[in-house]
Structures are given as C-alpha cells and as structure tokens.
Amino acid sequence: MIVKSAEFICSNTQISKLPLPLKPEYAFIGRSNVGKSSLINMLTEKKGLAKTSQTPGKTQLINHFLINDTWYIVDLPGYGYAKISKSKKEDWNKFIRSYLDKRESLQTVFVLIDSRLEPQKIDVEFCNWLGEKGLSFVLAFTKADKQSAVKTDQNIAKFRKALLASFEEVPPFFITSSENHIGRDEILGFISQVNQN
Ligand code: GTP
Ligand code: MG
Questions:
Q1: CA angle 74, 77, 78 (to 5 degrees)
Q2: Where does the chain show beta strands of DSSP type E?
Q3: Plastid as a keyword (predicted)?
Q4: pLDDT at res. 3
C-alpha cells in the first residue's frame, strides 16, 4: 500500500466525540514508551504526525489519523505508566477499554511489545483481555534495531509461548523498527488486506 495522505483529525477524551465509525480503524496500544507514536510516524512517513517523547506518558488522548481518506490509525495512551496517580490510571484504563470494546469500526488492535524484554505480565494480561472480549489483534515487536536478530527472535518465541497458556493459536506478529523502517511493508500489506475484506 502506498500512503498518499495522512492527516491528524482529532484528539479525544470522550467516546461520544470520536469520529463517526464509518471507516475501518486500526488502534495502536502497548506500554508507555514502547514506540506506538513512532511506529505510526514511520508507517505514514510523517515524522511529526503523532507526538513522540523519551518521557513515558506522552500520548494521553485517543488520536485519530486519517490515511488515504479511507481508513484511520488510532494512537492510544500507553498502559502501565508508573508515574501517574492510581485513580487517573483507572480512568484511562476504563476509557481505553470501553473504546476498544465498543468501537464498531475497529478492525484490528496492534499490541506493541518491546522486543528487548522477556514477556511482561501486563502485556500478556492485556492480550488475554482482548481475547476474552473476542477482539482481533496482532503483535508488533518494537525497537528491533536495539539488539541482535537472535535476541529479538528469542523474546518473540517466549512471548508467543506465554500466550499459548490461554490461546489455542497465537496471533500474527510483526518485527518492527521505527528507526530503520523494519516491518513497514508487512504492516501496511496486512492493513490493506483487511481493508479489502
Ligand atoms: P507514550 O505515548 O508515552 O505511551 O509512548 P509511545 O509508545 O507512543 O512511544 P514513542 O513513540 O513516543 O517512543 C518512545 C521513545 O522510544 C522515543 O524516544 C523514541 O524515539 C524511541 N523509539 C520508538 N521506536 C523506536 C525504534 O524502533 N527504535 C529505537 N531505537 N527507538 C525507538
Ligand atoms: Mg505515544
């Protein structure tokens, strides 16, 4: 797929104010700082489209970006960020989960996992929740440029094994690096196939 246009549409804290669910939508979620916003910028080849930061907790709203006038990428706030209050964390959690659970136009959730880490409980639990809700999701292992391919493959194998405790089949996965554009063609190819169905 060629990305001809990518434009910021809106940021929201209220589900009632989201764009009408008339176009296929793909949400990017994962722990704070895992690289969601960077991946969106890499896919669209627009550096400043989604705001990125070295400080976790940068994205705090549901952000809609319209691609090629036909489908949306949604940048979500990260989960598991330690430095915010418990009540704020719970508010976000409720808000994001209700968005994911209720959004009719949501096609696939991209769960971003830091490829440098051993399986993290919070990521496995989040995948389990998506599974319980019957939501379709894929995995994107981020920051693959930061270590050897062997290490990345080992961590992916461990994560897939962790999921097999609750899933019969593990979802498709992508290896990505926003630094050097790894995984771009594969992810855009996947989205374009889903859009055609
Ligand atoms: P929140 O919005 O805070 O939840 O974070 P996020 O998941 O959107 O992460 P963001 O894209 O802002 O990136 C966090 C940091 O990781 C930034 O300093 C990025 O430059 C860096 N980063 C993201 N992706 C990659 C990558 O593929 N490779 C490398 N080397 N660094 C990356
Ligand atoms: Mg972000």
A1: 120
A2: 6-12, 25-30, 62-67, 71-75, 106-114, 137-142, 173-175
A3: no
A4: 96
Does the beta carbon of 178 sit less than 6 angstroms from any atom of ligand 1? yes
- Provide the pLDDT for residue 92: 80
114 C-alpha vs ligand 1 centroid, how far in Å? 10
Ordered by start, the domain boundaries in the chain are 6-11+22-196
How do residues 76-87 score in pLDDT, each as one tens digit?
988 877 677 788
So what's the ipTM on this one?
A: 0.99
Judge: domain 6-11+22-196, CATH 3.40.50.300. Answer: yes
**Cα of 56 to ligand 1 centre, how many Å?**
9
The answer to whether residues 157 and 128 touch, using CB atoms and an 8 Å cutoff, is no
Q: Which residue from 29, 33, 42, 146 has its CB within 8 A of the most atoms of ligand 1, so it is best to mutate?
A: 33
What residues of the chain score a pLDDT lower than 50?
none
If phi over 0 gives left and psi between -120 and 50 gives alpha, with beta otherwise, what is residue 68?
left
Nearest residue by C-alpha to atom 10 in ligand 1: 35
